[in-house]
Design a protein that fits this description.
The chain has 339 residues and is mostly helical. Helix content is 78%, strand content 1%. The chain has one domain: NCX, central ion-binding region (A middle domain of Talin 1). The chain has 13 helices and 2 strands; from the N terminus they run ααααααββααααααα. α1 crosses α10, α2 packs antiparallel against α7 and α4 packs antiparallel against α13. The chain is globular, with a radius of gyration of 19 Å. The two termini are 23 Å apart.
């Protein structure tokens, strides 16, 4: 490895971070403006609009992993690792949101998308275990779990939308329009431009990460399940932290749970593109640890949203957040030891 190669690859990494950081801020601001101008709730905008855009890097890197480099472990590891990291973002949100406890301030309606996340992530983990026990059922090269995941994702989107519509009819809290001089079409165009930048940077990031792994002589499995997952989740982190600054807490939380749901929908997409058989039958059983960790972390988040705890431990974050952080570290350690 030459010094020029080392500098070049880390400069590319820095460029990606700057692009994601700048565009992520703009996406959050314009997404909030779309919510105000259309009357849609912050939950819905965060759940679908934000989550879809910020999860596109996982989609792009996953498809390339199964079609170009024939690595289903990197594809699935990135998705499940991203789910764990997304839930760890809740800890950062709790740390930087100082008005009150996020578990008390956030809309309890997030429990809907979180519960669907438990079902879909749990189904993914169960399918990996069934494949390990040679009990996988498939239709052609696609696992039976894939159409079930797609149907459940569509049901989740429909359910959250109907819930949001009902809430908006019952509680008509309309925030001031942050861009009164701009039309809805102008705001949407600016949002789309920022989204394209995030998508471009997100697609570029996994390639940069793989080059870093090669130059630094790091294990590819470790990079796939932790480094690439962390990098592709940077848009979610930027969106969440920016949402806090503009007092759009529900958008931040909705983006986290929505991104995890979209990640599970991506499993079905990757399964279709992977022609060697059901993709979850070809991956290491170690990924079920990430699935179990994600399910447990989501369950803790649901407890926090229902319990509405206000106390901060050590004046930093709530006890739910401390447990989420501990589980993230535990999952990272388990994957590091395995790698």
């Amino acid at each position: 490895m030459t010094i020029n190669e080392f500098i070049t690859i880390w400069l590319q990494f820095l460029a990606c971070l700057l692009l994601v950081g700048y565009a992520g801020v703009k996406i959050t601001i314009y997404g909030d403006a779309i919510a105000d101008k259309t009357g849609l709730g912050g939950n819905w905008i965060g759940f679908l609009l934000m989550a879809t855009v910020t999860s596109v890097p996982e989609l792009a890197s996953g498809i390339s992993a199964v079609t170009l480099v024939n690595s289903p472990d990197i594809a699935i590891g990135t998705l499940l690792g991203s789910c764990v990291f997304n839930l760890a973002i809740i800890v950062l949100v709790d740390l930087f949101y100082r008005k009150a406890s996020i578990y008390k301030s956030a809309d309890v309606g997030h429990v809907l998308s979180a519960a669907f996340g438990i079902v879909l992530i749990g189904l993914c983990g169960l399918s990996i275990d069934l494949a390990d026990a040679e009990l996988m059922i498939s239709v052609g090269h696609v696992g039976l779990y894939s159409p079930v995941i797609v149907l459940l994702y569509i049901l989740a989107v429909r359910t959250v939308f109907r819930y949001e519509s009902h809430q908006l009819k019952t509680y008509s809290e309309q925030e001031p329009d942050p861009f009164p001089a701009l039309s809805l079409a102008s705001v949407i165009l600016r949002y789309l431009f920022s989204a394209i930048v995030v998508i471009f940077a997100g697609v570029w990031l996994p390639s940069v990460a793989k080059q870093i792994a090669l130059l630094m002589h790091w294990q590819e499995s470790f990079v796939g399940t932790l480094l690439v997952a962390l990098i592709t989740s940077l848009p979610e982190m930027v969106v969440a932290l920016t949402a806090i600054k503009i007092h759009a807490l529900d958008m931040a939380i909705g983006n986290i749970f929505g991104s995890n749901l979209f990640n599970m929908a991506v499993v079905a997409v990757e399964d279709y593109f992977y022609k060697a058989g059901p993709i979850l039958a070809q991956v290491s059983p170690i990924h079920s640890i990430s699935a179990a960790t994600s399910v447990t972390m989501t369950g803790l988040a649901i407890i926090g949203l229902f319990y509405r705890a206000e106390q901060r431990v050590l004046k930093m974050v709530g006890w739910i957040s401390w447990l989420l952080f501990a589980l993230y570290l535990l999952n990272s350690y388990a994957l590091f030891i395995y790698a």
